[in-house]
Write the structure tokens for this entry.
Amino acid sequence: MTPLPPPEPRNPDGETRRVGVEIEFAGLPPRDTAELVRELFGGELTVISPHRLKVQETRWGDFVIELDTQYAHPDREVLDARPKDDTEWERQRHQMRVDFHTRTRELIGDVVTGLVPTEIVCPPVPWDELDELDALFDALRQHGAKGTDASLLYGFGLHLNPEVASLSVESLLDHLRAYLLTAEWLREQIDVDITREVLPHANPFPKPYALKVLDPRYAPDLDTLIGDYLEDNPTRNRELDMTPLFAHLRPGYPHPLFRNKLVKARPTFHYRLPDARLSEPGWGSVTEWNRWLEVERLAADKELLAKRSAGYVAKHTRSPLARLWLRMRGWAGTS
């Protein structure tokens, strides 16, 4: 499958926009997965800890392969801590704490391997090279990796991180509006697995927030856009998670979520909706990129975006009596 071109193919620096890809799956442990990545894309395999590895210096950058739970990996704060003083006894005590912590995390990883997913965090890939990255999805299938549809216990996902074409508030608002209007269609196209529906990893936006943003009179500056978002969405668990992008634009913004180490500041949209459908031949990052482009096309069409936004607000702010009247007219076949 060929990746389709976005309306704006270049980033603010005039370079080809890139897309970060994150994929979760079962059936293949991190070490075997890392070896597979190296076979496909070259690079050097580095063991960071027993359940976290990197394949470095590939054509696109570094791949990170790990068990998707923080408890299987040593805590960097513990590893970087210093002894309380410079005595031999304190240095030995400190080293014993570090060794115990490291070994405990390794044992936790050993126990949960097979119960929690393996995750590959790919380096940013130019959008027009995503079909080459999809060789990884084919190889994962061939080596027994299992996606969301393999079991009711598998709540796995694929995350896309499309680099933004513009950092202007107007552009960000257009894309957020376009996503709100397209989200239901995307869910229908993806046919989201029931496991993803019931787990809180990628929840839809609340309707009051959608109405606020889609109101034609809504014209926020950046801090207002961020503040309104966080007021109604104080969580990372949204289909379109804007916190990494907002953290990039306002690194010192006073909100606890921005101090969460899981929020990684970057100039991208963090699109969390798709399932990991590894059992479907041909499915991969290109499939979901091409669907995502419906959002970007709508964002680029100012007239249609304004029309659909106004229509959404009008539809969802009608009184119950007006909605009943319109439904009755529809039943009667009148217009």
Summary: DSSP finds 13 helices and nine strands in the chain.
